[in-house]
Amino acid sequence: YESHMGQSDRLGTEGQAWLELTRLPEGDRRIDGCLKDSVAGTYCHGLLANDALRQALLEALWRRRGLAGRPARPAGEPAARAGLPASETPYGQLAGWLRRHLDLPLLYACVGVKP
Fold first, then answer.
1. CA separation (Å) from 82 to 9, 77, 85, 86, 99?
2. pLDDT above 70 for 31
């Protein structure tokens, strides 16, 4: 996972686009993402929240590694969709841990951001 601001350029990376997104209802299309070797990236936020797509991706990776059978499916729904408070979701727990263990005022100062 990587979060950043700015522009990305695929030129010269020897990678290939791996998503064609269609904006509805207008229908205009946009190429997104880059795939190179075993690394894939996209700006399509929430892409892996789609259970069917995520499972298909995991199964493709499973087959690529030559593993038998199928990867295990997680039990139950993700915490965010099960109605849990944000602080109890995995990302909420990670955010809490980071707040407790990082010197956030120093980090903000280093990157020039006001809290």
1. 38, 6, 9, 11, 25
2. yes
